[in-house]
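Predict fold of RND transporter; 384 aa.
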Amino acid sequence: MNSKKHIHLSYIALLVIALALVLWFNLKETSGKSRPIKSQVPTPSPVTVLNNHTIKIDPQSPLYRKMSILQLQKTSVSIPMLTMTGTVIAKRKSGLLPQEDNFEFNSQELSAIYADWQKYGTDIAFLKKQILKTQELIATQLRTQKTEVERLRKLVEIGTEAARDLNLAESNLLQTQLEGQKSLFDLQNAMVQAKHSFADAERRLLQAGVDVELLAKLGQTAVLVAGDVPEVSIDKIKVNQQLAARFYGHLDKVFTGRVQSISPSLSIEKRTLKVFFTISDQNGELIPGMFSDIGLGTDARDSLLIPSDALIHIRDKDYVFRMVQDNQWQVTEVKVGERFDANWVEILDGLTEEEKVIGHGAILLKPIAEKVVMTITSLSKQAA
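Predicted 3D structure, encoded as tokens:
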């Protein structure tokens, strides 16, 4: 009897639980249907690329607040426009020595080339004298032979000399002319070869770092230095440009000078151009073969400086964001010089005073700048 009662109560309990579950699910479904669904509205981008390839930035956006805007002003600087490596090529030896033995070079090969250059120069001077003397000799011989021919011709006409003597004199005159022409031809041919050899030796000296005109003027307390300027930077150099050099053996001292000459030809192997100058060395601290870091263009000048953070490097070029209208920026290519310090860099071309650029935070826009540059490049290729 008790067991039947327990079974009956169990059924009732299960029924109550089932009813409760049904009511709970119904309430949940009803409440879910009555709750409004929030619409997913996309957040507008703070940056828009316009049809003219400029970039518009929302001034109310958090991105804009992360950026700094800089108005360009010229600043007086004396930082190098270009840094290159250089070498002490030659200096005069101390004491009284013959001119040809009066220089120390940075290599035996260079010394040998210089000796060849001197030899060819001596040959040219000797041949010039030989040609002049030979011309004088031939002229004298021809004058004498012509006088003899004229004398014999008159004597033959009056019958006091045989015709064969006149013929012999005329033959001697022709022989003298032929021999004179041959002698002059040989000397002039030797002169041409000597001049070619001299020019070749001078070209090799220039490529090795010796400007012979500067070498001839080199004082007893000076050294001849040559530097290598990369091909892409040759537009930054000019004669009489001020420079500062630090030699590896004397890093605590700065030697100053000016560009005195520039090589007329580019090194095919290195794709560099030689720049020559002399440096005063009163204490005899510099010796041939010493290497140095040379800063070219240290003359004081007014220049535009921008923060390093403002530069965007894309492929092999540098760009900045330049303001063209309120909140509109153009990706502008610039030509940069040397860094003023760790935080500032000089602008050589592409910007003018009073223009505004994005400074700190420009790197955040680099992906957009890359797309703009690629688009402009593609359109330029299609137009070409």
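The helical segments are 2-34, 62-65, 108-158, 163-208, 212-217, 366-383.
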